[in-house]
Every structure is written in C-alpha cells, then in structure tokens.
Amino acid sequence: xxxxxxxxxxxxxxxxxxxxxxxxxxxxxxxxxxxxxxxxxxxxxxxxxxxxxxxxxxxxxxxxxxxxxxxxxxxxxxxxxxxxxxxxxxxxxxxxxxxxxxxxxxxxxxxxxxxxxxxxxxxxxxxxxxxxxxxxxxxxxxxxxxxxxxxxxxxxxxxxxxxxxxxxxxxxxxxxxxxxxxxxxxxxxxxxxxxxxxxxxxxxxxxxxxxxxxxxxxxxxxxxxxxxxxxxxxxxxxxxxxxxxxxxxxxxxxxxxxxxxxxxxxxxxxxxxxxxxxxxxxxxxxxxxxxxxxxxxxxxxxxxxxxxxxxxxxxxxxxxxxxxxxxxxxxxxxxxxxxxxxxxxxxxxxxxxxxxxxxxxxxxxxxxxxxxxxxxxxxxxxxxxxxxxxxxxxxxxxxxxxxxxxxxxxxxxxxxxxxxxxxxxxxxxxxxxxxxxxxxxxxxxxxxxxxxxxxx
Length: 456
Known about the structure:
The chain has 456 residues and is α/β, with parallel strands linked by helices. The protein has helices spanning 2-26, 31-37, 51-73, 83-114, 118-121, 164-167, 190-203, 222-228, 242-245, 267-270, 291-295, 320-324, 326-329, 349-355, 357-371, 379-386, 430-435, and strands at 124-126, 132-134, 179-185, 210-216, 233-238, 277-281, 285-287, 304-306, 308-309, 339-340, 344-348, 391-392, 421-423. The strands form four sheets. A seven-stranded mixed β-sheet has the order 5-4-3-6-11-8-12. InterPro entries: Glyco_trans_8, Glycosyltrans_8_dom-fam, Nucleotide-diphossugar_trans.
C-alpha cells in the first residue's frame, strides 16, 4: 500500500509538471529572454527549451541508462561481486553515460545553433556610457574602435546674415549661400579628416554656411562624424571601389593605389546637380584661414583652380617612354603645363559635367595600364588633362610637401610666404609621427586640431 501510494503521488507530480511546462510554452519566449535582447543578445523564438528542463531530461536519461546496464550485467549476483570487476564496469558505465549526455545535448540544441547566422550571433553592446564591450569574433568588415572628442560648436558671425533656407529653419544642399567642401573618409586617414574639418570650422567667419560632402567606401562612419560634430552640415556619399579598381595601376607607394584616392574623379557624378562648385581637400591638411576666401576664387574660363608650381621639373612626373612617343607627349603641344597638387582644388562642376572630364581621366588611366607612362597614383591623369589649363591660386592655399618625400617621409620646412593651408602630402603623416614620439617641427602646427582620444 505504501509503495502504491508513492507511485500515485509520483504520477500526479509528473502531470502537474507537464501542465506547467505546456502553459509556459504557449507564451513563446519568457520575459527574461526578451529583456536579454535589449543588451545586444539575439534569441530566436524557436529556442524555447529551458535550461532546467534540459538538465532534468539528461538526469533522467542518465539514471535510466545506468539502471538498464546494471540490470543487464546483474551486479548484485555473486559472480560479479568482486570489487575490481564491479568498479571497472561502473567506471565504464559512467563514461558511456557522459558521452551519451553530450550527444543528447548536441541533438537538442542543434536547431538553435543553426538558427544563429554569423552576422547575428556576433554582436557588441554598450554596457554603460564609457565602457565598451565587443565580442572577440568580429564581422569580416568591422572597423576598429575609434574615439574622438566632441568638437566645440561654431556659430556664424553677425555679418554672415541668413539665407531664406536658414530662416525657415532648414538648410538644403542646394542653398546658394553654402560653401561646399568635399573630403574623403576612411579608417586609415580618418584622424586627419576630422582634424581638417575642425580647422575649417575654427577659422571660418561663417562656419554654419559650410556644407561638407564626405566620400566613403565604408558604410559606418557617419555616426562617428555626427557624434564629433553634432551641428555639422554634411552628407555622406558611398563610392563603390569596383568602379575604378580595374583602372588602377601600381604606384611608388601602396597608399596611392587605394580606390578612394580616385573618388575625386567622380565628384560631378556623386554630388547633386544643384551643386555647381566644390572645394576638394585631401585628408592630411589643416586650414588656418577662412575657407570662404578660397571659395570665391575666380576661375574665369577654367574648370579647376589650384596653386601651380611652374619651377618644378614637370618631366619627372612621366616616364621616358611617355616623352619619347609623340602620341603621348603631344598632348601638351600648345600648352604651358605646370605641376599642381590635386589635394587642394576648386572645381567648376557645371563645366566638368558638360565636357565630361571623368571620361578623359579614365582614358589616360587605361593607357597607363597598357603602356606604363607614369609612376605616381592619381596625380598624372590630372596633369595630362588639365596642366596648362588651370586657374592659378595663391601658393598660400597649399603649403604642400610637409609629409616629406614618398619614400622616407623626411621633415621639411615651409615655402617662403604667407600660409593659409598646411598640407602634409608625402609619406609622413603628423598623427603617426606624433604618436611615435618622433615628430617633425611643423607637426606641432597640426596637433591643436586633433580631436582623437578621450577628453581629460
């Protein structure tokens, strides 16, 4: 009777547990799982097996297995009572049951494991305002953690006035009062780009009238710019590297072969048709004068304006084979070509679009692939198309070469005369030299605009 009472009690207890389990299952995933998803963890609804149920199932299967095998071997018989044999058999049973338990776990969990594709299983979350947590496994194209201090807010001076768009509380990219500046953004030069933007805002009389056009090949830099410059007027344009990759040839420096270096060739296509003029700037410079002065440059009948350096040896920018063949060198007949640096240009986009200069640049890049007529990267095609037809701009707007030559990156001095823009063209970059504790003297002029790192 006692034995029957225990069995009935056990049956009732099992029914009660099954009923509770079914009631829990009807509601899908429990609230605790939903809360976990707000911490950056993704859980699929199919995975409704609780950890407690799993443990109970494994314990039941393991005990049943041991009981069955024990009965099979009849451990209580006199033949098997010897301690050594009994211990060996029991050890074998425990090991087998352990393997069996592991197999059951994999079978039960396999649907849940398959429901997490890598992109969803790899997540990062902010645990608090400053502490960042990242899963060790990263997506293939993830960016390193970059942190910049928030810039001060720069306001227009009273004499700037307000356009109709600004009075109505919104600014359109087509607002004719805007100064348009195009800069590339990429991880390697991001620190330089942020410093360039910071310098422009700091020295502008009307910083709220400056509109930035950022050219990117990575898709997750916009939020970083927004957090660093909360009031900045800007738009991000994605440049597809494959557009130009097949046209790029090897150069004296690998950095010059990056597709984003050629994005400037496509500004007329990327920017809105209402944008009629743009200042293109490299990422390794700072502006120490009002950018509006450069914006108002008179281009006359020319398509681009830039500081020219006619004393430079122009022939060195092309190979001996180029100069020996008239079909190539003849392009400069009737022109007085001078070297100019493409890191600072004022571009008339209306004329560019009308003439179709992008196609002309691409044509020279195709010739380079087959005939090797120059050794540098994106500069020579511009010289071939525009040299001798450039609206001259004062040299103060491109004190270039501060990064040294393209190999050693040696220190250099400023050119004689006034300075409105400092340009670290060449292989040496100021942020790298400052970090390595081996700066050049002029790198100290770049440092005040650097927003990299946490504020102290």
